[in-house]
Every structure is written in structure tokens, then in C-alpha cells.
Amino acid sequence: MLFGYAWDTSGFWPFVISIMPILLIGLWVTLKATVIGFAIALVLGLLLAALKAAPTRLIAWPARAITEFIRDTPLLIQLFFLFYVLPDFGLTLPAFMTGALALGLQYSAYTSEVYRAGLEAVPRGQREAARALSMAPGRTFTHIILPQAIPRIIPALGNYLVSIMKDVPVLSVVTVLEMLNVARIIGDRTFNYLVPLTIVGILYLLLTLIAAWGIRWLDTHLPSHGVALK
Amino acid sequence: MSREPIIRFDRVSKRFGDFTVLDNLDFQVQPNEKVTIIGPSGSGKSTVLRVLMTLEPINEGVVYVGGDPLWHEYRRNNELSPARGAHLRRMRERLGMVFQQFNLFPHMTVRRNLTEAPRRVLGLSRAEADERAHELLELVNLGNQADKYPGQLSGGQQQRVGVARALMMRPRIMLFDEPTSALDPELVGEVLKVIRQLADTHDLTMLMVTHEMHFARQISDRVCFFDQGRILEQGPPEEILSSPKEARTREFLHAVLNPDE
Ligand SMILES: Nc1ncnc2c1ncn2[C@@H]1O[C@H](COP(=O)(O)OP(=O)(O)OP(=O)(O)O)[C@@H](O)[C@H]1O
Ligand SMILES: [Mg+2]
Q1: Residue B57 forms contact with A (CB below 8 Å)
Q2: Per residue in B132-174, pLDDT tens?
Q3: Which residue ranges does UniProt annotate as crossing the membrane (chain A) (predicted)?
Q4: CATH superfamily, with its number, for domain A12-221
């Protein structure tokens, strides 16, 4: 029994049907971790990208170093750090939040690069034209540069969304009951690993296909020359 | 020509690292004067325009536009100090620029390309801005293209939008940096025609870099030959283009007029 649902090992289909609700609860946890982790990565990445673009090296350099450090170390290390070391400093987060935070932190390094590359791909002449028209720097960024960067940024971000989802099982090491962890527990207790693992594999495949389809849809429907705001 | 110049470069130097692009340049333009800048690649022609458009800062000297220093501000003791953003923004409104690569905003319609800055910067209402855009699109013979996106227009049409967009801010000075160099040969004429018309009908000071010598002869009051960040020779177009004194000018003109040799 898990999450209050008992399993029925009397046959193949009864077993599948009985563990389905349990796996779906795990799926829900996986999705939540993906979405929250992704949201953190989007915001933190934007912050890092802004810092890396700062005119003073005093700000830009540490931001670059942080990005590089995060990128070059395994997700597991950051997860262990947040889970085992932060409490020493009096900061204890629930396992799930720690996991989502670790995912967000790891992927903020990647998203910050996506933002940077997207913004740099906008031709310099665009900024110069706006300047020649006396447009304010803030408005130039939000209405000239950003709209042209978005069609390049969004598909790349979508790919990281899928990656995050596939990294969620790492959170099982800090006791988060995400889908794969749930499947393993079912296997441990029923000695049937094949069925729950296969179901998890299929669910992952479905999610990835849906996400890939969504990204492709965005790719073809975002105007390639930029998104006019309003 | 005894009036106060509208543009004045006073011993201006501009360097990129060790490389000197403008070398102690003295240069003046009178109000309403049409000046063409010619010269070999790398001689600093674009840089002169970019300095005026405040796209490129200078290292030494003072540039005056309409009598006021462009890259400097007067402090209380009447000394010049480097200009702050607000000063640059104010000064910029006196100039408009047409770029070689057009630099239209690809995600905005033609109308929006024209009205975006006047509405935000000059505070025009939508109706006022649309009205002004309509007039200027008529002027450049694009009255029925306002709802298209730049990507739907030919190069010649795009550059005419570029001209109209710069005029929207009602600048007193228009800068053209090789406005037809990126165009297919058959589209050059329509853009030059619009610029010529503009020169004839508007009280504008025009400063243009071009390799269209025939056009330069028609439109300019003065031609300046730039070489290594200085003006080597200048004068009325007939004089400079037909009987230049300097050997380097002759070489340059020969090369431009006989590109196949
Ligand atoms: N941002 C920059 N950094 C370094 N060097 C630059 C930069 N911009 C221009 N230069 C150099 O300054 C010199 C003058 O440039 P400029 O664009 O004014 O020449 P130009 O006369 O317009 O030439 P062209 O006919 O090729 O357009 C060139 O040698 C160019 O390589
Ligand atoms: Mg040039």
C-alpha cells in the first residue's frame, strides 16, 4: 500500500489498474517539480543573464563564475548541498522544495545562456536605429530587442523544460516521491519491477512527445521576425 | 557662407584602440547645405556620421550641432564636461539617420516603424503620429504600404521607409550612410529620387556618404574627399569630381568610375 492505495497482485491487468492511481500521484509530483524548477530557472536565469551583461566586471565576472560552476558540477552535488549543508546554516526546506530549487539552480545556468545568445543574435543595427530615434534604453529593450529575441529564446527554453522533467528522478535520493521513485517502491514491495517501470517509461515517453509537439508548434507559430507586443 | 555652421567638428579625434579613425578633424556644415562625403574604405566616412548620431563617442575635440556641444555639456563655470544621457537624448532629436542596411524594425508594420518613436519620445497622440506617417509615406511614394511588414517590401521600398522614419522626428539634419549600397542596381534610382526630392522641397541640412558620383554631382553643394581620417580636399562637386587637385582623389575617382579595371 502507498498513498492509501493497495495493489492487487492477482493478475496482470488488476495489478496495472491498482497501481495506476499511485503512479499518477507520482506523476503529479514529477510535473510539479518540473514546473516549479523551470519557473525558478527562468527567473534566476534572467537575473544571471542581466548580471553577466552588466557593464562593470565587478558584477559580470562573479555572475559568469557562478554560471560556470553550476554548469560544470553534477546536479546531485547541488542537491546534496541544499539538502544536507543548508540546514547547518539554519535553513531547512522540505525535500520537495529543496529538489525543485536544485533543479531551478542547475538549469538557470543553461537558461541564462539561452537568454544571452538570444539577445546577442539581434543585429546591432536595431539598437542603433532605436538610439538614432531617441528611444529610451528601457523601451528599446522591451519593444525592439526583446520581441526579436523571443522567437529564438522560447524553443531553446522548451528543450530545457523536457530536460528538467527527465532530471526529476534525481530528487528521489532526497526522498521525494516522484514517479520513478514510486515505481521503485512498488517494485520493492511486490517484487514486480517490470510493470511499474514500464508504465513510468511509457508515461515519460508520452510527456516528452507532448512537449516536443508543443515546442514544434511554437517554433512554427512564433513569427520568425519577432513578436510585436500589443 | 558667413552664417553660424549647423555642424562643426573642432579638432576631433576618434580612435579604436591604437587605430586613429578621425585625426584632428576640422569640418563645418552650413544650415541647409548638402554635403557629400567620398573616400576610400576605412577613411572614417561612416564614423563622422556615427559620431554625429551619437552612436560613437569621440576621444578628443568638440562637436557642435546647432551651436551646442554634442558630446559635452557646459558646467556652471562654463567649462565643458562629458555629456550625460539626458543631454544626448535632447541633442539626438536634431538629427535623423538613414542606414546602409535600413535597420527597420522587422516585427512592426511600416506604420508602427514610423510612429513608435514620435509617440514615445515626442509624445504625439496616435492620430497625430498616424497623420504624420501618412504624409511622409506619401512623400516617399509608399502611401499604400503602411500595413505591411518590412519583410514584405523590396529593398528599395524598405530604404524609402527608412527615410520616412528618420523624417518623422522632424530633424534639421539628415545623415545618409551609403543609403543605396545594399540595393540591387535597379532599385537604386527610386531611393535616390526620393532623396533628391527631399533635398529640393525641405529645409534640411544633408550629409551623405555615397559612391553614386553622378548623384553626388547633382545634389551636393560641396563634396569632401576623406582620406585617413582627414579631409584631403573639398569643394564644389564640379571641381572635386572633374578636376581634383590631389593625386589620391584622382586615383580614388578613377577606381570608383572604372570598377572593372
Ligand atoms: N567598432 C569598431 N572597432 C574597431 N574598429 C572600428 C570600429 N568601427 C570602425 N572601425 C574601423 O575604423 C575605420 C573607419 O571606419 P569607417 O566605418 O568610418 O570607414 P568608412 O570610411 O565608412 O569605410 P567604408 O567605405 O568601408 O564604409 C575602419 O578601418 C574600421 O575598421
Ligand atoms: Mg562606411
Answers
A1: no
A2: 999 999 999 999 999 999 999 999 999 999 999 999 999 999 9
A3: 12-29, 35-54, 75-97, 193-215
A4: MetI-like (1.10.3720.10)
Q: What number of other Cβ atoms are within 10 A of residue A191's Cβ?
A: 8
B38 has a pLDDT exceeding 60: yes
In the sheet with B173-177, reading across from the earlier edge strand, the strands are B95-98, B173-177, B205-209, B34-38, B222-227, B230-235
Q: Is residue B214 part of a domain?
A: no
Q: Which three cell numbers stand for residue B16?
A: 579604436
Tell me if residue A56 falls in helix, strand or coil.
coil
Distance (angstroms) between ligand 1 centre and the Cα of B18 equals: 13
Which tens digits make up the pLDDT trace of A37-56? 999 999 999 999 989 888 78
Residue B121 lies in a domain: yes
Residue B98 CA to ligand 1 centre (angstroms): 17
Listed in order, strand segments (DSSP E) in chain A are none
**What single letter denotes the amino acid at residue A12?**
F
Task: Yes or no: say if A104 and A44 are a contact pair by the CB < 8 Å rule.
Answer: yes
Strand partners, B174: B96, B206
Q: Cell numbers for B40, please give them.
A: 576610400
ipTM surpassing 0.90, yes or no? yes
**Would B125 be classed as within a structural domain?**
yes
The greatest distance separating any two alpha carbons of chain B, rounded to the nearest whole angstrom, comes to: 59
* Residue B89 Cα, gap to closest chain A Cα (Å): 6
Q: Is pLDDT above 70 for B6?
A: yes
